[in-house]
Amino acid sequence: MCFVAVTASGLHDLQAVPFAKRYPGVGIHANLFNSITTKNFLIRLNRWINLIILIALLSVIIWLSKIKSVKRSLIYVAGTILSYILLSILLFIYLHIWMDLFYPILAAILLYLGLTFYCLIAERHRRQLIERELAVARRIQQSFLPKDPPSLDSIDIASFMKPAREVGGDLYQFISTSKDKLSIMIADVSGKGIPAALFMVRVVTEFKIRAGKYPSPKMVLSEVNNQLLKESKTGLFVTVSYCLVDTESMEVLLSDAGHLPVLFYDARSDEVKEIRPEKGMPIGLLPNIEFNDELINLSKGDVLLFYTDGVTEARDTKAQEFGLDRLKDALKIYHHQTAPLILDGIKSELKNFSKKAPQHDDITLIVLKVV
Fold it and tell me: Which of 237, 173, 256 is nearest to 199 (CA)?
């Protein structure tokens, strides 16, 4: 069969079709005749099949949106939508099956955006609840620490602690064992966050119970270590510097459990010395550990500085650490001041060094000065 027609610009025979802006009308008739004779028709899926496909697609989107990683979820959802588009095109080209494309894709995108927004709101609400709980935990933790340093006639004391998070693993304590004797303890629990804070409370409690029962710091450390191992199954450990200050004889008996060396400014020699007794293993690791005591004779103008690794490992914007040498220099610069002013001076040096770099570890300082 031959179709003959007059086709030219300006005639009504030229029509727009899906694949061309201007197409001869006779060609449309020829294609229609060919489809009838060859029975090669487009197959439009009915609304129920399209509805089932839509439900299946949206179910896959809901399942993929539950992936915790937002990046992975977005990649999988985008891959699913592209796969659906590709399947629709292939079915149309090779099997002449016409499947709804626009509305299912639009529904899938809107559903994913809605679920993502809902998850973000839920996550924000959950974080707010956690932050409120952590704020309560921080107040509870602070209640276990001394509010103010003890006031003594011949000893000036100042202390400072700043957790890197809402709750921290640093701890310190002042325990008056008698009228002229004061125990000072500073420690750093392994780990961060809630587990370290809970373990810190346990350590403080054990020290308070045993501080006045034994005449030397090494015996207190040994007993606390054995008790923690006996009842604790957390796997955490703690480094401790613990000393007993005798304000009558002006002597300090110091014991160490894997903590950083105490800095001692000796007013007689105008030098800053590192003091760290031997056999200092952290407590909470092995039973029946032996500790040593070291005697320090104090005189007017001497300063003892206790600190945690959050001080020496404080970093600047170039990831350089503050270091022990800078801490020694700061102590030597401010040693002539009162204990609170020495503490403020060291904090100022830390702040000037770190600038806008974030704090990555707990910072604790105790200054003891003989006046």
Answer: 237
Neighbour tally for 332: CB within 10 Å: 15
- Residue 178: DSSP 8-state: E
Which helix (H) or strand (E) covers residue 259, if one does?
none
> CA-to-CA distance for 184 and 220, rounded, in angstroms?
12
Per-residue pLDDT at 41: 84
Tokens of 202: 């346990």
321 close to 357: Cβ distance less than 8 angstroms? no
Number of neighbours of residue 345 by Cβ within 10 angstroms: 17
> Does residue 142 belong to any structural domain of this protein?
no
Query: Is residue 141 in some structural domain?
Result: no
- Half-sphere exposure for 212 (CA within 13 Å, toward CB): 12
Whether 196 and 100 map to the same domain: the answer is: no
Quick one: three-class SS letters along 2-34? CCCCCCCCCCCCEEEECCEEEEEHHHHHHHHHH
Residue 143 belongs to some domain of the structure: no
Average pLDDT, the chain: 88
Going by pLDDT thresholds of 50, 70 and 90, the confidence category of residue 331 is very high
90 in a structural domain: yes
Q: Are residues 362 and 229 in the same domain?
A: yes
Residue 267: φ, ψ to 5°: -65, -25
Distances (CA, A) of 280 to 10, 136, 217, 262: 101, 34, 12, 13
Residues 26, 64 within the same domain: no
Calculate the CA 218 to chain-centre distance.
35
Task: Single out the residue of 299, 304, 233, 250 nearest to residue 275, CA to CA.
Answer: 304
Closest CA to 194 of 134, 126, 145: 134
Q: How many Å apart are CA 103 and CA 165, to the nearest integer?
A: 48
pLDDT of residue 355: 86
> Who wins on pLDDT, 311 or 178?
311
Q: Which of 203, 314, 326, 354 is nearest to 263 (CA)?
A: 326
Q: Tokens 């500073």 label which residue?
A: 186
How far is residue 159's CA from residue 42's CA, in Å, rounded to a whole number?
83
Let me know whether 107 and 185 are in one domain.
Answer: no
Whether residues 116 and 247 share a domain: the answer is no
Q: The pTM is what?
A: 0.69
Helix (H), strand (E) counts: the chain:
9, 14
